[in-house]
Every structure is written in structure tokens, then in C-alpha cells.
């Protein structure tokens, strides 16, 4: 039974992330109009240094960009908002906790967006509660 079990590939996890994102409340998704979701195995060395991470497993995800409330009409062609999910740290976290992989991916998405917009943990918990497992 377990001989055919394998962790999701980068592409499979990216599909899962897009599916989890599409299930989030519309108002929350609207904060990130045009967001690009990318999955990589690990953060880059530059990101690890910038975030002062001790290990490549310390970061599960990262939001890069400027959210709608912070954008200005005077901005010159800003880069798109991006959410980075880091597959190997997410899988490591998942293996150590009693949660579905989809739940972990959704949690990381909500928290990366939520922290960027200054939402409290209670706000983010309420948003996650709106989505059925």
C-alpha cells in the first residue's frame, strides 16, 4: 500500500495551492487581485538571509508585493504580488502535525496574505473557518 505513496511534486502542490486560494472568501482574495502563486522546494539564499532564517526549513511561505490598500495610482508599473510556498518545509511541517496537507497549504496562504495586510491571528482564523475542510 505505501510503496506507491509519494509526496506531491512542485506542479501538483501549485495546483493544490491555486485550489485552496480559490476557496478563500472573495473579499479576502480581492485584497490580492492578480496575485501569482508559485511553489519552490526552498526559499532562495537571499530570502533566507533577509528573513534571518536559521534553516531552509524555517519558512513555509512568503508574500512579496504591494496589496491593494497600499497601491497608488502614481505607482510606476509595480511588480505583481506573489505568494511563494516552499514545498519541502511545508511537507516537513505536515509530517510532524495532525493536519491534512490541504489545510496546511491553505493556512500558509492565509497567513502570508494576512500578515502582509496586518490582520490579527483572530482575523486569519476567522477567514480560515469560512472554508470547509
UniProtKB/TrEMBL annotation:
InterPro entries in UniProt: Zincin_1, Zincin_1_sf
SUPFAM superfamilies in the record: Metalloproteases ('zincins'), catalytic domain
CDD domains documented for this protein: MMP_ACEL2062
Pfam families membership: Zincin_1
Coiled-coil region(s): none
Protein name as it appears in the record: Zn-dependent protease
Amino acid at each position: 500500500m505505501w510503496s506507491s505513496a509519494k509526496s506531491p511534486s512542485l506542479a501538483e502542490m501549485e495546483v493544490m495551492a491555486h485550489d485552496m486560494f480559490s476557496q478563500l472568501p472573495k473579499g479576502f482574495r480581492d485584497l490580492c487581485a492578480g496575485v501569482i502563486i508559485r511553489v519552490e522546494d526552498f526559499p532562495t539564499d537571499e530570502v533566507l538571509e533577509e528573513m534571518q532564517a536559521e534553516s531552509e526549513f524555517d519558512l513555509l511561505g512568503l508574500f512579496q508585493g504591494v496589496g491593494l490598500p497600499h497601491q497608488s495610482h502614481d505607482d510606476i508599473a509595480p511588480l505583481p504580488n506573489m505568494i511563494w510556498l516552499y514545498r519541502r518545509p511545508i511537507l516537513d511541517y505536515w509530517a510532524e502535525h495532525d493536519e491534512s496537507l490541504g489545510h496546511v497549504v491553505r493556512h500558509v496562504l492565509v497567513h502570508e496574505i494576512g500578515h502582509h495586510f496586518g490582520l490579527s491571528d483572530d482575523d486569519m482564523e476567522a477567514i480560515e473557518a469560512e472554508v470547509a475542510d
